[in-house]
TrEMBL record:
Keywords: Coiled coil. Residues 153-232 form the DUF8206 domain. This is DUF8206 domain-containing protein. The keyword Coiled coil applies. Residues 256-283 form a coiled coil. InterPro entries: DUF8206.
Protein backbone atom coordinates (compact mmCIF):
# COMPACT_ATOMS: atom_id res chain seq x y z
CA UNK A 1 0.00 0.00 0.00
CA UNK A 2 1.23 3.46 -0.87
CA UNK A 3 2.32 5.76 1.90
CA UNK A 4 0.87 9.21 1.36
CA UNK A 5 4.24 10.90 0.72
CA UNK A 6 5.91 12.06 -2.51
CA UNK A 7 8.30 9.08 -2.25
CA UNK A 8 10.73 8.50 -5.12
CA UNK A 9 9.14 11.24 -7.21
CA UNK A 10 10.52 14.04 -5.04
CA UNK A 11 14.29 13.73 -5.79
CA UNK A 12 13.58 13.43 -9.52
CA UNK A 13 11.25 16.43 -9.44
CA UNK A 14 13.75 18.50 -7.41
CA UNK A 15 16.48 17.73 -9.91
CA UNK A 16 14.26 18.59 -12.88
CA UNK A 17 13.33 21.94 -11.35
CA UNK A 18 16.98 22.66 -10.54
CA UNK A 19 17.85 22.12 -14.16
CA UNK A 20 15.12 24.49 -15.28
CA UNK A 21 15.58 27.58 -13.14
CA UNK A 22 13.28 29.64 -15.33
CA UNK A 23 10.37 27.47 -14.25
CA UNK A 24 9.37 29.08 -11.03
CA UNK A 25 7.68 26.34 -9.02
CA UNK A 26 8.46 25.99 -5.34
CA UNK A 27 8.25 22.58 -3.71
CA UNK A 28 6.24 22.95 -0.53
CA UNK A 29 3.12 21.73 1.24
CA UNK A 30 1.14 24.13 -0.96
CA UNK A 31 2.36 22.62 -4.18
CA UNK A 32 2.57 18.94 -3.27
CA UNK A 33 -0.60 16.84 -2.94
CA UNK A 34 -0.35 13.12 -2.58
CA UNK A 35 -3.22 10.87 -3.61
CA UNK A 36 -3.11 7.27 -4.61
CA UNK A 37 -5.26 5.07 -6.76
CA UNK A 38 -5.06 1.92 -4.58
CA UNK A 39 -8.58 2.37 -3.27
CA UNK A 40 -9.92 2.95 -6.76
CA UNK A 41 -8.22 -0.18 -7.99
CA UNK A 42 -9.72 -1.99 -4.99
CA UNK A 43 -13.20 -0.82 -6.05
CA UNK A 44 -12.62 -2.15 -9.54
CA UNK A 45 -11.34 -5.45 -8.18
CA UNK A 46 -14.21 -5.94 -5.76
CA UNK A 47 -16.71 -5.37 -8.55
CA UNK A 48 -14.99 -8.11 -10.50
CA UNK A 49 -15.62 -10.54 -7.71
CA UNK A 50 -12.18 -10.59 -6.06
CA UNK A 51 -12.38 -11.29 -2.32
CA UNK A 52 -10.41 -9.27 0.27
CA UNK A 53 -9.67 -9.73 3.96
CA UNK A 54 -11.39 -7.32 6.35
CA UNK A 55 -7.96 -5.87 7.24
CA UNK A 56 -7.23 -5.02 3.60
CA UNK A 57 -10.66 -3.45 3.26
CA UNK A 58 -9.91 -1.27 6.24
CA UNK A 59 -6.54 -0.19 4.78
CA UNK A 60 -8.15 0.74 1.46
CA UNK A 61 -10.83 2.68 3.25
CA UNK A 62 -8.19 4.69 5.13
CA UNK A 63 -6.32 5.26 1.87
CA UNK A 64 -9.50 6.57 0.21
CA UNK A 65 -10.21 8.99 3.05
CA UNK A 66 -6.64 10.29 2.89
CA UNK A 67 -6.86 10.85 -0.86
CA UNK A 68 -10.18 12.65 -0.42
CA UNK A 69 -8.68 14.86 2.29
CA UNK A 70 -5.69 15.67 0.05
CA UNK A 71 -7.99 16.46 -2.86
CA UNK A 72 -10.05 18.77 -0.68
CA UNK A 73 -6.86 20.45 0.55
CA UNK A 74 -5.87 20.99 -3.10
CA UNK A 75 -9.26 22.53 -3.91
CA UNK A 76 -9.06 24.79 -0.84
CA UNK A 77 -5.63 25.97 -1.91
CA UNK A 78 -6.83 26.73 -5.44
CA UNK A 79 -9.92 28.42 -4.03
CA UNK A 80 -7.71 30.74 -1.95
CA UNK A 81 -5.49 31.78 -4.87
CA UNK A 82 -5.71 35.30 -6.24
CA UNK A 83 -7.69 35.20 -9.50
CA UNK A 84 -5.50 35.55 -12.56
CA UNK A 85 -6.92 36.95 -15.75
CA UNK A 86 -5.82 34.27 -18.15
CA UNK A 87 -7.07 36.31 -21.08
CA UNK A 88 -4.48 39.00 -20.33
CA UNK A 89 -1.56 36.74 -20.82
CA UNK A 90 -0.97 34.94 -24.03
CA UNK A 91 0.08 31.37 -23.93
CA UNK A 92 2.85 30.21 -26.18
CA UNK A 93 0.26 28.59 -28.39
CA UNK A 94 -1.87 31.71 -28.63
CA UNK A 95 1.19 33.78 -29.47
CA UNK A 96 2.07 31.35 -32.21
CA UNK A 97 -1.48 31.52 -33.56
CA UNK A 98 -1.49 35.33 -33.50
CA UNK A 99 1.77 35.44 -35.43
CA UNK A 100 0.60 32.97 -38.04
CA UNK A 101 -2.66 34.88 -38.48
CA UNK A 102 -0.71 38.11 -38.94
CA UNK A 103 1.64 36.74 -41.58
CA UNK A 104 -0.59 37.34 -44.56
CA UNK A 105 -1.94 40.73 -43.42
CA UNK A 106 1.60 42.00 -42.74
CA UNK A 107 2.87 40.87 -46.12
CA UNK A 108 -0.19 42.23 -47.94
CA UNK A 109 0.02 45.56 -46.17
CA UNK A 110 3.78 45.86 -46.70
CA UNK A 111 3.18 45.23 -50.38
CA UNK A 112 0.43 47.85 -50.40
CA UNK A 113 2.76 50.36 -48.70
CA UNK A 114 5.34 49.68 -51.45
CA UNK A 115 2.68 50.29 -54.10
CA UNK A 116 1.59 53.52 -52.39
CA UNK A 117 5.19 54.77 -52.20
CA UNK A 118 5.61 54.00 -55.92
CA UNK A 119 2.40 55.92 -56.72
CA UNK A 120 3.61 58.99 -54.82
CA UNK A 121 7.10 58.84 -56.34
CA UNK A 122 5.54 58.72 -59.82
CA UNK A 123 3.54 61.86 -59.05
CA UNK A 124 6.67 63.65 -57.80
CA UNK A 125 8.40 62.88 -61.09
CA UNK A 126 5.29 63.83 -63.03
CA UNK A 127 4.95 67.28 -61.48
CA UNK A 128 8.47 68.24 -62.47
CA UNK A 129 8.32 66.62 -65.90
CA UNK A 130 6.20 69.08 -67.88
CA UNK A 131 4.25 72.32 -67.44
CA UNK A 132 1.14 70.49 -68.61
CA UNK A 133 1.41 67.70 -66.03
CA UNK A 134 2.13 70.33 -63.37
CA UNK A 135 -1.00 72.25 -64.26
CA UNK A 136 -3.08 69.07 -64.20
CA UNK A 137 -1.85 68.11 -60.74
CA UNK A 138 -2.19 71.62 -59.28
CA UNK A 139 -5.74 71.88 -60.62
CA UNK A 140 -6.91 68.61 -59.15
CA UNK A 141 -4.63 68.35 -56.10
CA UNK A 142 -5.46 64.67 -56.09
CA UNK A 143 -2.91 61.93 -55.40
CA UNK A 144 -4.79 58.77 -54.56
CA UNK A 145 -3.11 56.05 -52.54
CA UNK A 146 -5.03 53.01 -51.35
CA UNK A 147 -6.02 51.43 -48.07
CA UNK A 148 -6.78 47.74 -47.95
CA UNK A 149 -10.25 46.84 -46.82
CA UNK A 150 -10.66 43.11 -46.22
CA UNK A 151 -14.00 41.58 -47.17
CA UNK A 152 -14.57 38.05 -45.91
CA UNK A 153 -16.03 35.22 -47.95
CA UNK A 154 -18.27 32.89 -46.00
CA UNK A 155 -16.51 29.82 -47.38
CA UNK A 156 -13.23 28.94 -49.08
CA UNK A 157 -13.14 29.58 -52.80
CA UNK A 158 -10.82 27.86 -55.28
CA UNK A 159 -9.40 30.43 -57.68
CA UNK A 160 -6.79 30.22 -60.42
CA UNK A 161 -3.62 32.33 -60.12
CA UNK A 162 -2.30 31.86 -63.68
CA UNK A 163 -1.63 35.12 -65.47
CA UNK A 164 -4.17 34.04 -68.09
CA UNK A 165 -6.85 33.58 -65.44
CA UNK A 166 -6.39 36.70 -63.29
CA UNK A 167 -7.12 40.28 -64.20
CA UNK A 168 -4.55 42.99 -63.66
CA UNK A 169 -6.77 45.77 -62.68
CA UNK A 170 -5.22 49.21 -63.14
CA UNK A 171 -5.55 51.39 -60.06
CA UNK A 172 -7.17 54.67 -61.25
CA UNK A 173 -4.92 57.74 -61.62
CA UNK A 174 -1.77 55.65 -61.06
CA UNK A 175 0.66 53.39 -62.89
CA UNK A 176 0.11 50.62 -60.32
CA UNK A 177 -2.16 47.65 -60.77
CA UNK A 178 -3.83 45.08 -58.57
CA UNK A 179 -4.36 41.38 -59.14
CA UNK A 180 -8.00 40.28 -59.17
CA UNK A 181 -8.80 36.59 -59.04
CA UNK A 182 -11.63 36.61 -61.50
CA UNK A 183 -11.57 32.89 -62.32
CA UNK A 184 -13.60 31.19 -59.63
CA UNK A 185 -13.01 27.53 -60.41
CA UNK A 186 -14.92 26.28 -57.37
CA UNK A 187 -16.94 29.07 -55.85
CA UNK A 188 -17.89 27.27 -52.66
CA UNK A 189 -15.28 24.60 -52.08
CA UNK A 190 -16.02 22.11 -49.31
CA UNK A 191 -12.51 20.68 -49.27
CA UNK A 192 -10.95 20.65 -45.82
CA UNK A 193 -7.34 20.91 -44.66
CA UNK A 194 -6.27 23.38 -47.36
CA UNK A 195 -3.97 26.18 -46.19
CA UNK A 196 -5.69 29.28 -47.56
CA UNK A 197 -4.09 32.12 -49.51
CA UNK A 198 -1.07 30.14 -50.64
CA UNK A 199 -0.10 27.79 -53.45
CA UNK A 200 0.84 25.22 -54.67
CA UNK A 201 -1.42 23.21 -52.41
CA UNK A 202 -1.46 19.42 -53.10
CA UNK A 203 -4.83 19.11 -51.29
CA UNK A 204 -6.41 21.06 -54.16
CA UNK A 205 -5.85 18.06 -56.43
CA UNK A 206 -9.03 16.79 -54.79
CA UNK A 207 -11.08 19.92 -55.49
CA UNK A 208 -14.24 19.15 -57.46
CA UNK A 209 -12.95 21.45 -60.23
CA UNK A 210 -10.07 19.07 -61.08
CA UNK A 211 -10.32 16.29 -63.63
CA UNK A 212 -8.63 12.87 -63.46
CA UNK A 213 -5.29 14.41 -64.52
CA UNK A 214 -5.58 17.15 -61.89
CA UNK A 215 -6.22 19.80 -64.51
CA UNK A 216 -8.98 22.29 -63.86
CA UNK A 217 -12.19 21.58 -65.75
CA UNK A 218 -13.14 25.24 -65.51
CA UNK A 219 -9.96 27.03 -66.67
CA UNK A 220 -7.82 24.10 -67.93
CA UNK A 221 -4.82 25.15 -65.78
CA UNK A 222 -2.98 22.63 -63.62
CA UNK A 223 -3.95 22.11 -59.94
CA UNK A 224 -0.71 23.75 -58.76
CA UNK A 225 -1.79 27.15 -60.08
CA UNK A 226 -4.89 27.10 -57.90
CA UNK A 227 -5.39 28.37 -54.39
CA UNK A 228 -8.06 28.72 -51.73
CA UNK A 229 -9.01 32.24 -50.74
CA UNK A 230 -11.09 33.06 -47.66
CA UNK A 231 -11.26 36.83 -48.04
CA UNK A 232 -10.55 39.51 -50.58
CA UNK A 233 -8.90 42.86 -50.10
CA UNK A 234 -10.76 45.74 -51.68
CA UNK A 235 -8.80 48.91 -52.42
CA UNK A 236 -10.16 52.08 -50.86
CA UNK A 237 -8.61 55.21 -52.41
CA UNK A 238 -7.65 58.18 -50.24
CA UNK A 239 -6.08 61.47 -51.22
CA UNK A 240 -2.56 62.18 -49.93
CA UNK A 241 -3.33 65.89 -50.22
CA UNK A 242 -5.66 66.61 -47.32
CA UNK A 243 -7.79 69.71 -46.89
CA UNK A 244 -5.18 71.63 -44.85
CA UNK A 245 -2.53 71.11 -47.53
CA UNK A 246 -5.03 72.02 -50.26
CA UNK A 247 -5.75 75.32 -48.53
CA UNK A 248 -2.04 75.95 -48.04
CA UNK A 249 -1.28 75.25 -51.70
CA UNK A 250 -4.18 77.42 -52.87
CA UNK A 251 -2.99 80.30 -50.69
CA UNK A 252 0.35 80.39 -52.52
CA UNK A 253 0.56 82.86 -55.39
CA UNK A 254 3.16 81.46 -57.76
CA UNK A 255 3.10 77.99 -59.29
CA UNK A 256 6.67 77.56 -58.10
CA UNK A 257 5.60 77.94 -54.47
CA UNK A 258 2.60 75.69 -55.01
CA UNK A 259 4.78 72.93 -56.46
CA UNK A 260 7.18 73.30 -53.53
CA UNK A 261 4.43 72.70 -50.94
CA UNK A 262 2.97 69.90 -53.05
CA UNK A 263 6.28 68.06 -53.30
CA UNK A 264 7.02 68.62 -49.60
CA UNK A 265 3.71 67.01 -48.69
CA UNK A 266 4.34 64.01 -50.94
CA UNK A 267 7.86 63.69 -49.60
CA UNK A 268 6.61 63.68 -46.00
CA UNK A 269 4.09 60.99 -46.85
CA UNK A 270 6.76 58.80 -48.44
CA UNK A 271 8.94 59.23 -45.35
CA UNK A 272 6.05 58.31 -43.02
CA UNK A 273 5.16 55.25 -45.10
CA UNK A 274 8.78 54.09 -45.29
CA UNK A 275 9.12 54.41 -41.55
CA UNK A 276 6.00 52.33 -40.95
CA UNK A 277 7.15 49.77 -43.45
CA UNK A 278 10.40 49.42 -41.50
CA UNK A 279 8.50 49.09 -38.23
CA UNK A 280 6.27 46.38 -39.69
CA UNK A 281 9.29 44.50 -41.01
CA UNK A 282 11.12 44.76 -37.71
CA UNK A 283 8.10 43.27 -35.90
CA UNK A 284 7.83 40.54 -38.54
CA UNK A 285 11.49 39.67 -37.98
CA UNK A 286 10.95 39.38 -34.23
CA UNK A 287 7.89 37.20 -34.87
CA UNK A 288 9.99 34.96 -37.10
CA UNK A 289 12.61 34.55 -34.37
CA UNK A 290 9.94 33.84 -31.77
CA UNK A 291 8.48 31.08 -33.94
CA UNK A 292 11.90 29.64 -34.50
CA UNK A 293 12.78 29.65 -30.81
CA UNK A 294 9.45 28.18 -29.76
CA UNK A 295 8.76 25.76 -32.56
CA UNK A 296 7.73 22.26 -31.67
CA UNK A 297 7.51 21.22 -35.27
CA UNK A 298 10.35 22.13 -37.64
CA UNK A 299 10.53 25.88 -38.07
CA UNK A 300 8.84 27.18 -41.12
CA UNK A 301 9.19 30.78 -42.11
CA UNK A 302 5.66 31.48 -43.21
CA UNK A 303 6.26 35.16 -44.03
CA UNK A 304 9.10 34.19 -46.35
CA UNK A 305 6.87 31.58 -48.01
CA UNK A 306 4.07 34.06 -48.52
CA UNK A 307 6.42 36.71 -49.91
CA UNK A 308 7.59 34.11 -52.44
CA UNK A 309 3.96 33.57 -53.48
CA UNK A 310 3.47 37.34 -53.91
CA UNK A 311 6.71 37.59 -55.92
CA UNK A 312 5.56 34.74 -58.17
CA UNK A 313 2.27 36.53 -58.84
CA UNK A 314 4.03 39.82 -59.57
CA UNK A 315 6.41 38.07 -62.00
CA UNK A 316 3.38 36.84 -63.95
CA UNK A 317 2.04 40.37 -63.96
CA UNK A 318 5.31 41.81 -65.30
CA UNK A 319 5.42 39.10 -67.99
CA UNK A 320 1.89 40.10 -68.95
CA UNK A 321 3.15 43.64 -69.57
CA UNK A 322 2.77 45.26 -66.14
CA UNK A 323 5.50 47.43 -64.65
CA UNK A 324 8.09 45.83 -62.41
CA UNK A 325 8.20 48.36 -59.56
CA UNK A 326 6.20 46.26 -57.10
CA UNK A 327 8.10 43.14 -58.10
CA UNK A 328 11.43 44.82 -57.40
CA UNK A 329 10.32 46.27 -54.10
CA UNK A 330 8.93 42.89 -53.02
CA UNK A 331 12.25 41.26 -53.86
CA UNK A 332 14.07 43.96 -51.91
CA UNK A 333 11.74 43.41 -48.98
CA UNK A 334 12.37 39.66 -48.99
CA UNK A 335 16.13 40.30 -49.07
CA UNK A 336 15.96 42.76 -46.19
CA UNK A 337 13.71 40.47 -44.18
CA UNK A 338 16.00 37.47 -44.68
CA UNK A 339 19.05 39.52 -43.71
CA UNK A 340 17.46 40.92 -40.58
CA UNK A 341 16.28 37.47 -39.49
CA UNK A 342 19.87 36.24 -39.89
CA UNK A 343 21.32 39.14 -37.89
CA UNK A 344 18.81 38.73 -35.08
CA UNK A 345 19.25 34.97 -35.07
CA UNK A 346 22.98 35.40 -34.64
CA UNK A 347 22.53 37.82 -31.78
CA UNK A 348 20.05 35.48 -30.09
CA UNK A 349 22.51 32.63 -30.46
CA UNK A 350 25.36 34.75 -29.06
CA UNK A 351 23.22 35.79 -26.15
CA UNK A 352 22.27 32.24 -25.28
CA UNK A 353 25.92 31.10 -25.48
CA UNK A 354 26.86 34.00 -23.22
CA UNK A 355 24.14 33.03 -20.77
CA UNK A 356 25.28 29.46 -20.67
CA UNK A 357 28.90 30.44 -20.09
CA UNK A 358 27.89 32.80 -17.32
CA UNK A 359 26.02 29.91 -15.73
CA UNK A 360 24.31 32.43 -13.52
CA UNK A 361 21.14 30.39 -13.69
CA UNK A 362 19.31 33.57 -14.72
CA UNK A 363 17.68 32.71 -17.99
CA UNK A 364 16.76 35.74 -20.06
CA UNK A 365 14.46 34.65 -22.81
CA UNK A 366 14.38 36.78 -25.94
CA UNK A 367 10.65 37.29 -26.25
CA UNK A 368 7.85 35.96 -24.11
CA UNK A 369 4.26 35.53 -25.32
CA UNK A 370 3.23 38.80 -23.64
CA UNK A 371 5.91 40.65 -25.62
CA UNK A 372 4.23 39.35 -28.75
CA UNK A 373 1.00 40.90 -27.55
CA UNK A 374 2.79 44.25 -27.05
CA UNK A 375 4.30 44.08 -30.53
CA UNK A 376 0.88 43.37 -32.04
CA UNK A 377 -0.58 46.35 -30.18
CA UNK A 378 2.26 48.54 -31.46
CA UNK A 379 1.31 47.53 -35.01
CA UNK A 380 -2.34 48.42 -34.42
CA UNK A 381 -1.24 51.90 -33.31
CA UNK A 382 0.57 52.73 -36.56
CA UNK A 383 -0.90 55.94 -37.94
CA UNK A 384 -1.06 55.03 -41.62
CA UNK A 385 -1.59 51.28 -41.51
CA UNK A 386 -2.62 50.33 -37.96
CA UNK A 387 -6.34 50.08 -38.57
CA UNK A 388 -5.84 48.12 -41.79
CA UNK A 389 -3.58 45.64 -39.98
CA UNK A 390 -6.18 45.22 -37.24
CA UNK A 391 -9.08 44.75 -39.69
CA UNK A 392 -7.10 42.26 -41.74
CA UNK A 393 -6.00 40.40 -38.64
CA UNK A 394 -9.55 40.18 -37.28
CA UNK A 395 -10.91 38.85 -40.51
CA UNK A 396 -8.02 36.49 -41.09
CA UNK A 397 -8.33 34.92 -37.64
CA UNK A 398 -12.14 34.79 -37.86
CA UNK A 399 -12.06 32.94 -41.16
CA UNK A 400 -9.30 30.65 -39.91
CA UNK A 401 -11.29 29.88 -36.78
CA UNK A 402 -14.34 29.15 -38.89
CA UNK A 403 -12.33 26.81 -41.10
CA UNK A 404 -10.77 25.21 -38.05
CA UNK A 405 -14.17 24.44 -36.59
CA UNK A 406 -15.11 22.65 -39.79
CA UNK A 407 -11.80 20.87 -39.98
CA UNK A 408 -11.87 19.55 -36.43
CA UNK A 409 -15.42 18.30 -36.69
CA UNK A 410 -15.43 14.58 -35.93
CA UNK A 411 -18.25 12.21 -36.50
CA UNK A 412 -19.59 10.65 -33.34
CA UNK A 413 -20.52 7.08 -34.04
CA UNK A 414 -22.91 5.97 -31.29
CA UNK A 415 -23.23 2.50 -32.71
CA UNK A 416 -19.50 1.91 -32.50
CA UNK A 417 -19.54 2.77 -28.80
CA UNK A 418 -22.35 0.34 -28.10
CA UNK A 419 -20.66 -2.40 -30.04
CA UNK A 420 -17.41 -2.05 -28.10
CA UNK A 421 -19.35 -2.31 -24.86
CA UNK A 422 -18.67 1.28 -23.77
CA UNK A 423 -21.86 2.90 -22.59
CA UNK A 424 -22.62 6.20 -24.28
CA UNK A 425 -21.17 8.97 -22.16
CA UNK A 426 -23.29 11.99 -21.35
CA UNK A 427 -21.64 14.01 -24.04
CA UNK A 428 -23.72 16.36 -26.12
CA UNK A 429 -22.42 18.90 -28.56
CA UNK A 430 -22.74 21.59 -25.87
CA UNK A 431 -20.62 19.72 -23.32
CA UNK A 432 -21.50 17.36 -20.50
CA UNK A 433 -25.12 17.00 -19.74
CA UNK A 434 -25.43 17.10 -15.96
CA UNK A 435 -28.71 15.27 -15.84
CA UNK A 436 -27.11 12.28 -17.46
CA UNK A 437 -27.03 9.24 -15.23
CA UNK A 438 -23.43 8.28 -15.92
CA UNK A 439 -22.18 11.73 -14.96
CA UNK A 440 -24.09 11.56 -11.68
CA UNK A 441 -22.58 8.19 -11.02
CA UNK A 442 -19.10 9.52 -11.72
CA UNK A 443 -19.70 12.36 -9.27
CA UNK A 444 -21.03 10.14 -6.54
CA UNK A 445 -17.82 8.11 -6.52
CA UNK A 446 -16.02 11.17 -5.29
CA UNK A 447 -17.62 11.21 -1.86
CA UNK A 448 -15.69 9.92 1.18
CA UNK A 449 -16.38 6.31 1.14
CA UNK A 450 -17.18 4.12 4.17
CA UNK A 451 -18.55 0.70 4.75
ZN1 LIG B 1 -13.35 22.49 -54.58
ZN1 LIG C 1 -9.16 26.60 -62.54
ZN1 LIG D 1 -6.52 28.89 -64.67
Amino acid sequence: MTIHRPGDTLPTLTELLNENKDVNIELSRHTIYCMDNESFRFLCAIHNGIKFEQDDKHNFSVSWDKSVAETNRLFEHIDGLKPHKTRDSLSLNDARKVILNLTKPLADISKNVQTNIAIINDKMIEITSSKEAQKGLLDKLYVPINDLMPVGLNYPRTVCTSSTCVKYHKIPETNASKIDYITHCHKHCGLTGVKPETYPNPELQHCAAMDANYNCEVCRCSWDKHMHITYENKLVPKNVINQTTRDLINSKKSDEEKVKVFIEELDNKVKALKQEEEQIRSVAVQFGIFLKMNAICPYNDSLKDYLMVLIGLEKDKVNAGGNDKTLNSLKAMLDKYTQEVKVLERSVLEQSILEQSMASGEHVSVLCPDDINKLVQSLYKLKENGKQIQDNMNLCSASKARMQSTYTETYYNARQYKRSGITTPGYRSGGYNESDKSVKQARSIFKPWKW
